[in-house]
């Protein structure tokens, strides 16, 4: 569940010759270290080896000549890189704009046209070329189509698609919790397509009501399996284009009691499929024959908590968790079964497993260079608030840090598809982002040519890191924001920003603090963000997975016990303590306010899960187990259980169009507070989704409401 909503946009334009290259907006080409950029409507390719030899491969005028008039939102390349699909006119599906229109352009002739003509406007999803470049496949309204590029003939390949039978893409919960969007794959020879089919006919609708956009209210249904409800049945099919026949893979296990989050072609005959059991504490890798459908188990791993087959906090969708090495004889696999997230090499028959990163710290796989045998991974052995690039050689198994020492803090890398170059972004609490293009061989900087300049943020508050140990012996990392005129001899109101669940961390070595609270710091507040046990930081398996069957319990206690220690500081006014969180952080906010009124006097909770039973099955059961097996913990974890204890000041905000954390959570909480005559403030936003951003004036109104409530209930200023 990506409940933490943080939007950061870094725009870095650097002069290069006669042009301006925005290295933060480059898009890597497949199987190379070339990249394309949009320069005022002209599409340009750069080769990282020779940036001065840029090539304009399509001009704005050439695009206009084929009838294209829209915004270029993305490009899909064919294998030979002589044909492209341009994505435009995108529309939102759940979190992202994943449906729209596609235009085909032959880069040799500069001729092209819109594909999918005759289908609904802006209905195409995940269009991609066959490897031979002769066909394009895409999804439209839950069915898969193939289009012959020479004849423009469109062939419908699946015919049963509805809002309940979903071919080639996914329902809400697969996208949200398994990071799955693109639901089909071309075979290497282009003769077949492997695809997911989601059968949601037994999955109940959660009904949202729109009261404002028509004379009469209307219902918006969302397939949404809540905790305790069976998953939608999912199976994998292979379509042969020549016959349009579908062959179903015979994956063992009940289709409605397991998950199939990933698959990938190995060659023209076989695929590898990743299966998770419903509790997500067992993963099985199958090798499947595309013709017979037979599935052979090649590897299995179990856990007494849960297994991560992808890094959900990284926000990457559809990535296959295995990287093949040794000419396909082995693959790399991330696992934290030994107490650290480590990289293993497993033979393709599953009979041999070898630990590659033999270090006592977490190693999160990022990329592999098949020529140098270097495995690149994200690690931070000594400071969990930071991130650094490390490399381990597949053959020698020697590990070393490759991020230079001057780049202290948080480092992120966008690798070229061949892992030879990368865009490197560095920042920390006292340094704005520094972005550069570099060669991974020796970490040689390629662009910009100037020396790295580290810019101090122009903020009206300061940030510092600290550690705090609780009465339970748990040491938490924290980030503290202070006004620039801070006076240690005075007492300040304290404002906690919380999240606390496995999807995100908040105590990060970066140059910003929560947007709402940071606006208040200059007025005379201390802001603090803490990462409790269970957050996805690099402190090992025990830290991250101690929250198993304890969401809402262990994180609430860690935050409160840390707050008790912080309240001992001389410059804290213990009568003015506020807390704010959104989504999972909203749930923690409510739990803290209800259970620890002696600490937290004021709280602002937004879009909170007020009862663990109400959230989706994949996320909730992964971390909490099934309700039937852990009912007492579900009740203990839920803020609504403690609503009767409210003593302080509460502002609750939610959008009625929230398809993630449903507005139902708000109404159940409201009922409980009313039942016990607990007076509180409430702000409901009609038809707004989880981010509460749609509609004119929405964000300003939300911010103004937030600020007004704090000013009245937790006044600013040192005393």
List keywords for this structure.
five-stranded antiparallel sheet; Rossmann fold; 10 helices; mainly beta; globular; disordered N terminus; 719 residues; eight-stranded mixed sheet
Description:
The chain contains 10 helices and 45 strands. By secondary structure, it is mainly β. The protein has a domain at 461-713: Rossmann fold. Strands 38-39-41-40-42-43-44-45 form an 8-stranded mixed beta sheet. Strands 15, 16, 17, 20 and 21 form a 5-stranded antiparallel beta sheet that branches. Strands 3-4-5-6 form a 4-stranded antiparallel beta sheet. The longest helix is centred in the C-terminal third of the chain and has 16 residues, at 698-713. It is globular. Mean pLDDT is 95; it is low at 1-19.
């Amino acid at each position: 569940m990506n409940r933490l909503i943080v939007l950061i946009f870094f725009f870095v334009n650097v002069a290069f010759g006669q042009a301006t290259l925005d290295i933060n907006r480059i898009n890597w080409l497949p199987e190379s270290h070339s990249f394309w950029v949009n320069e005022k409507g002209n599409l340009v390719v750069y080769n990282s080896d020779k940036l001065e030899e840029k090539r304009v491969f399509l001009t704005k005028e050439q695009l206009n000549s084929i009838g294209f008039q829209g915004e270029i939102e993305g490009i899909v390349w064919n294998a030979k890189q002589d044909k492209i699909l341009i994505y435009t006119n995108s529309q939102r599906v759940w979190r992202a704009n994943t449906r729209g229109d596609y235009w085909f352009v032959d880069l040799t002739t500069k001729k092209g046209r819109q594909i999918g003509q005759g289908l609904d406007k802006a209905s195409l999803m995940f269009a991609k070329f066959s490897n031979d470049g002769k066909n394009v496949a895409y999804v439209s309204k839950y069915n898969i189509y193939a289009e012959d590029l020479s004849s423009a003939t469109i062939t419908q390949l699946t015919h049963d698609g509805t809002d309940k039978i979903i071919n080639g893409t996914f329902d809400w919960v697969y996208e949200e919790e398994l990071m799955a969007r693109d639901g089909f794959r071309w075979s290497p020879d282009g003769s077949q397509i492997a695809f997911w089919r989601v059968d949601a006919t037994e999955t109940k609708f959660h009904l949202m009501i729109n009261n404002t956009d028509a004379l009469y209210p209307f219902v918006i249904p969302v397939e949404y399996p809540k905790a305790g409800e069976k998953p939608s049945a999912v199976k994998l099919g292979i379509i042969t284009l020549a016959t349009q026949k579908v062959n179903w893979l015979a994956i063992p296990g009940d289709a409605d009691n397991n998950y199939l989050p990933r698959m990938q072609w190995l060659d023209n005959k076989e695929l590898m499929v990743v299966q998770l059991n419903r509790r997500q504490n067992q993963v099985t890798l199958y090798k499947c024959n595309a013709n017979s459908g037979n599935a052979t188990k090649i590897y299995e791993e179990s856990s007494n908590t849960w297994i991560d087959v992808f890094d959900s906090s990284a926000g990457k969708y559809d990535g296959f968790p295995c990287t093949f090495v040794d000419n396909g004889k082995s693959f790399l696999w991330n696992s934290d079964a030994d107490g650290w997230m480590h990289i293993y090499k497993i033979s393709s028959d599953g009979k041999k497993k070898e630990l590659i990163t033999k270090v006592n710290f977490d190693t999160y796989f990022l990329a592999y260079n098949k020529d140098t045998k270097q495995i690149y991974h994200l690690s931070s052995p000594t400071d969990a608030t930071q991130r650094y690039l490390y490399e381990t050689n597949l053959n020698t198994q020697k590990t070393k840090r490759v991020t230079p020492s001057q780049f202290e803090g948080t480092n992120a890398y966008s690798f070229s598809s061949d892992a030879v170059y990368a865009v490197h972004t560095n920042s920390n609490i006292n340094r704005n982002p520094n972005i550069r293009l570099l060669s991974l061989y020796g970490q040689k900087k390629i662009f910009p040519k100037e020396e790295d300049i580290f810019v101090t943020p122009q903020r009206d508050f300061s940030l510092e890191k600290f550690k705090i140990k609780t009465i339970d012996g748990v040491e938490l990392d924290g980030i503290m924001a202070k006004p620039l005129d801070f006076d240690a001899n005075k007492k300040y109101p304290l404002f906690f920003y919380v999240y606390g669940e496995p999807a995100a961390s908040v105590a990060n070595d970066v140059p910003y603090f929560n947007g709402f609270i940071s606006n208040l710091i200059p007025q005379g507040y201390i802001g603090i963000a803490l990462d409790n046990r269970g957050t996805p930081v690099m402190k090992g398996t025990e830290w991250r997975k101690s929250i198993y069957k304890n969401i809402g319990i262990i994180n609430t206690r860690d935050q409160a016990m840390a707050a008790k220690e912080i309240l001992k500081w001389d410059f804290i006014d213990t009568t003015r303590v506020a807390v704010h969180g959104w989504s999972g952080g909203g749930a923690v906010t409510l739990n803290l306010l209800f259970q620890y009124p002696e600490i937290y006097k004021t709280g602002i909770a937004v879009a909170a899960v007020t009862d663990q039973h109400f959230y989706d099955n994949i996320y909730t059961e992964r971390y909490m187990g099934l309700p039937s097996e852990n009912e007492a913990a579900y009740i203990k974890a839920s803020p609504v259980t403690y609503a009767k204890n409210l003593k302080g000041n509460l502002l609750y905000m939610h959008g009625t169009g929230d398809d993630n954390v449903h507005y139902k959570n708000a109404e159940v909480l409201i009922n409980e507070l009313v039942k016990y005559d607990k007076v509180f403030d409430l702000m409901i936003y009609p038809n707004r989704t989880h981010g509460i951003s749609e509609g004119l004036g929405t964000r300003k109104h939300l911010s103004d409401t937030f600020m007004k409530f704090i000013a009245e209930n937790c006044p600013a200023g040192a005393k």
